[in-house]
Amino acid sequence: MTTGNPNAGRGHGTVSATGTGWAETAPDVAMVTIGVESRGPSVDAAYSSAGAAMAAVTDAFRRQGVAPADLQTAGLGVRAVLAWREGEGQRVVGYVTSGTLVVRLRDMAAVPRTVSAAVTAGGDDVRLNGLAFTVSDPAGVKERARAAAWEDARAAAAQYAELASATLGNVLSVAELPAGQAPIPFAGIQRAAAVEAMPVEPGESRVDASVTVVWELLAD
Question: Which intervals of the chain are annotated as region Disordered (predicted)?
């Protein structure tokens, strides 16, 4: 998509155009968000159970070759479970402890096996919250997206110049507009049952770019 606004004056003026472009590449990193949720009659019981489950999950990832730097605790919480009892009102009947781990998996072929091992290790307390694919070094694909955006803007500016019976001169300004790389999401799962049989298809990761360029507009 392009937009432009030629402003031809006597002898010369300016023309601006906004171009968009994108490029795709195969993702090489899987970001897994996995957690545990344990219940117990006391804070200590719930916390200890969750800690054991999280330790088992973390150890499973390490045994699958995941580096310590690619394991990050992203959340930890304890909450009371309340229930209404006739004649007693609302009372605390237990506690829930939850923890979340964000894991960066760099061996794409091993993603299903690695996630399955972690889920199995954590047991019924495991929650697989999401999986997204991304690119570890998007610089190269970003350059291709910028080049596509530039050509898009230049084509629009050239058309406006032709419509104004003029030609493009020097570039006066270039402004890159915000455009992000959206990871390819994998459906979130509240309970990780039967994950061992779940296939994983990374597809293609897309990077977008958008640029506004101002050229001199030279009268023919």
Answer: 1-22
Cα 136-139-142 angle, rounded to 5 deg? 115
* H helical segments located in the chain: 43-63, 111-122, 139-163
Higher pLDDT, 9 or 75: 75
Residues 6 or more apart from 132 whose CB is under 8 A from it? 30, 31, 183, 184, 185, 186
Residue (of 149, 210, 144) closest to 180 by Cα position:
210
Given the structure tokens 């171009």, which residue do they identify? 19
Q: Are 46 and 93 in contact (CB under 8 A)?
A: no
**Rounded distance between C-alpha atoms, residue 145 and residue 166, angstroms:** 28
Which of residues 159 and 198 earns the better pLDDT score?
A: 159
Residue-averaged pLDDT of the chain:
84
Residue type (1 letter), 100? T
Instruction: Express each pLDDT in 86-117 by its tens digit.
Output: 777 888 889 999 999 999 999 988 999 999 99
- How many residues make up the chain in this entry? 220
- Domains of the chain (ranges; CATH) run 3-25+139-181+208-219 (3.30.110.170), 29-134 (3.30.70.2970)
Task: Quote the tokens at residue 142.
Answer: 């970003």
